[in-house]
Amino acid sequence: MATLVLLRHGESEWNAKGLFTGWVDVSLSAKGEEEARRGGRLLLDAGVRPDVVHTSLMTRAIQTANLALGSAGLLWLPVERSWRLNERHYGALQGKDKAQTREEFGDEQFKLWRRSYDTPPPPIADDDEFSQVGDPRYALLPAEVMPRTECLKDVVDRLLPYWYDRILPDLAAGRTVIVVAHGNSLRALVKHLDGIGDEEIAGLNIPTGIPLRYELDADFRPVRAGGEYLDPEAAKAAIEAVANQGR
Ligand SMILES: O=C(O)[C@@H](CO)OP(=O)(O)O
């Protein structure tokens, strides 16, 4: 049996403003910092002690990992970071207000862009102020791999190599793993873990800052579908709030 903990970063400055964020590298809000610290205390209270942390290359996930692990007394943990755990690239929607986008394009299109499995938003132009082309952290990424937009399916495709090559070996070695990432990169991982269908995944939302624990069997399949939030009541309300963004 292996233990895997998934943690979405705390509220970011752009979550608070209701903007599509994607690969734009915004920081946590003060509330998000507190959520991250609380996430660490939840780990401590539940007796979950990760041996290794995996994060994306994005500041909000790295800050969350540091704050959560700091409050759990685990700031020393070995860490591995990868762009493959980044948030879904939101294409030309990056920097746009969610409520205004919904008003301008209608509920159907808004839902498709936000939660459908295989409809990406229009690509972002390389000279857009919210493009990541030229960002030094992606300098080693081959040009043809650098996304200009992504749907959830694209995220599954770029995340799974990291799951199989980097995370599974840690779990197989008996390590408890914590993955600190993003709403949509974690939706992609949960879809894979729980075998959620392409239609059904539209209804799944991940709250900020609340650890989600999975016990995995010998085949690295969840013992209990959906895992277990370490604060189920808070998770319920927060999931609802994510689902209702843009309304
Ligand atoms: O803007 C984003 O990058 C994501 C996560 O914050 O938003 P959504 O939940 O709308 O996919």
Question: How is this structure best described in words?
Answer:
The chain has 247 residues and is α/β, with parallel strands linked by helices. The chain has one domain (2-166, 177-243): Phosphoglycerate mutase-like (Rossmann fold, 3-Layer(aba) Sandwich), CATH 3.40.50.1240. It is built from eight helices and six strands, in the order βααβαβαααβαββα. Strands 3-2-4-1-5-6 form a six-stranded mixed beta sheet. Helix 2 crosses helix 3 (59-71). The protein is globular and about 45 Å long. The relative contact order is 0.21. The model has no long low-confidence stretch (mean pLDDT 97). The structure holds 2-phosphoglyceric acid. It comes from Sinosporangium siamense. Catalyzes the interconversion of 2-phosphoglycerate and 3-phosphoglycerate.
